[in-house]
Amino acid sequence: MKGETLFKNFKTISEKEWKQKIQYDLKGKDYNEEVVWNSPEGIKVKPFYHADDLENVKVKTSQISSWNIGQMIYAGNAIMANEKALKSIQKGAEAIRFLIPDTTIDIAVILNNIDFNVVKVYLHMQFLSKEYIDKILTKVSRSKNVHLQIDPIGNLARSGNWYDTMSTDIDLVGGLISNDFENLLCVDVSLYENAGADMVQQLAYAMSHANEYLNILEEKDSLYKLKNIDFKVAVGGNYFFEIAKLKALRNLWEVLSNAYEISIPCHITTEPSKRNKTIYDYNVNMLRTTTECMSAVLGGADTVFNLNYNAVYKKDNEFADRIALNQLILLKEESYFDKVENPSEGSYYIETITSQLAEKALILFKSIEKDGGFLKQLKNHTIQNRIADGARKQQEKFNEKKIVLVGTNVFLNEEDKMNQELELYPFVKKNPRKTLITPIIVKRLAEELEQNRLSHE
After folding, report:
1. Distance CA 306, CA 302 (A)
2. pTM of the prediction?
C-alpha cells in the first residue's frame, strides 16, 4: 500500500532475543568462549551488534567530505623528485609528500611548477633548520595546502635525540607558530604502530605527544596562534578496528582541544603499516595495503598515502609506484569511495569499538599525564617498555600462527628465493650511537623468520 514500507512487515527483534537464538544454536556450548573474542586492546568483540549497543555511545558526525590521493617521493635528488611529482600529479595524485634528507636539497627546485591551489604538499624533513624553513616559506607564501609536518618530539622518540637540543627545537617551533603559518606541527603516530604498540597505546600516545606541544605553546603564549595540527598515522590489517582507530583519534583530539578551550582542527594523513609487510610472497602486500587504505578512507583520513608492495626490500621503481598510486585511484574513482560521505557512521559495531578504544585510550592518557607526561615517560623508558611488551605479545602470536601472514608463516612457497632480490636491508639496523634516551624501534613481525629462510637459500 502507498506510504507503507517493507520494514513494517517485520517485528523488531531485541538484542536479548538474538543472543538467545545464538545460544540455542550453540547447543550448550559457552557463548563467551565460542563466539566472543578478545582484541589485543582488551575489548570483547561480540558476534553481533544491536541498536541497544549505542544507548551509551555518542555518535559524532565527521566533517570529512573528501579525501586526497597521496604519493610519497624520496627527494634525494631535487630535479628527479620534482619530475616524479609532476608526473604523479598528471597520473592522478592529489597530494605529494616529499621526504627531504638534508639541507643541500634545493626546495625551490623540488616545488617548481607545482600548483599549491590544486595539490596538497607535505614536507617531511629529516632535519630542523630555520634557514631552510625560511626558504620554504618564501616559496610557498602562506598556502594552506602546504604542510611542514615538524615533529621534534617524534624525532626524539624515533632517534633517541633532539634535532639539536630541546630548548632550541621548541623555540624554533614556537617562533614559527608566532609567524602565523597555518600547517606546521605534526604528531607522528605511525612510529608507535610500526614498533608494535596496540591501538589503545597508539591513541593515548598520540594525545599525550600532542599534549606536550599544547603545554609548551601555552607556556610561550603561542597556543592561540596554532591553526592546525597534523596526525600521521599508520594503518594496520585489522580492518574494522583501524576504521574505529581513526574515528577515535578525531574524537579524542576534540576532547583534548576543548580542555584548552581552543578549537583547532586536526588533519589526518595515513599510510599502510610496515609491521605486517613481508619480503617473501611480496605480492600479498598489495592485498594488505588495499584493505589498509580502505580502512583509512572509511575512518575519515584527509589524505591517504600508499606503500609500494616491495618497499621493504627494493628501491623506488616506476612499476611499484604506479601500482601504489593506481590502487588509490581504483578505490576513489572506480569503487566510488568518494561518493558516499562517512559510510561507517552509525554502524553499531564500528561506533561501539570506536567508543571503547577512545575510553581506554583516555584512561591511559590520564595515567601518563598523572605520572608527569609523555616526555618524562620517554626519558624514563616507560613508553618504550610498554611498546616493547605489546610488540613481544604480537610476535608470540605470529610465531604461534595466531597472527597469520599468508606466504610467510603459513602457505609458504618453498621455491620462493629472495637473496638476489634485496636492494635494501629489510631488517632492524644496528647502529650504535650515543643517545639521550632509548629510541623506539620499528620492526616487522616477519623479520626473524625471513632471516632464517634467507640463510638457508
Report:
1. 13
2. 0.95
| Whole-number Å distance between alpha carbons of 56 and 74 | 46
Burial class (CB in 10 A: 0-12, 13-18, 19+), 395: middle
User: Is 90 exceeded by the pLDDT of residue 153?
Assistant: yes
Domain residue ranges in the chain: 149-354
Residue 367, pLDDT above cutoff 90: yes
In the sheet that holds 95-100, the strands lie side by side as 146-147, 120-125, 95-100, 68-74, 303-305, 266-272, 229-235, 186-188
Strand runs (DSSP E) across 215-372, as ranges?
A: 229-235, 266-272, 303-305
Determine how β-strand 44-45 pairs with β-strand 68-74. unpaired
Given a cut of 70, whether residue 313 has pLDDT beyond it is yes
* H or E segment to which residue 354 belongs: helix 348-370
CA dist., res. 132 & res. 135, Å (int): 5
- What backbone phi and psi angles, to 5 degrees, belong to 82? -65, -45
Alpha carbon distances (Å) from 94 to 121, 144, 204: 9, 14, 30
Write the single-letter amino acid at 32.
Answer: N
Cell of residue 127, nine digits: 632535519
Q: Is 361 helix (H, G, I), strand (E, B) or coil?
A: helix
97: DSSP letter: E
Q: Which fold has domain 149-354?
A: TIM Barrel (3.20.20)
Strands 44-45 and 37-38: antiparallel
Q: Which residues contact 162 (CB under 8 A, 6 or more apart)?
A: 152, 155, 156, 168, 169, 436
- Do you know the residue count of the chain? 457
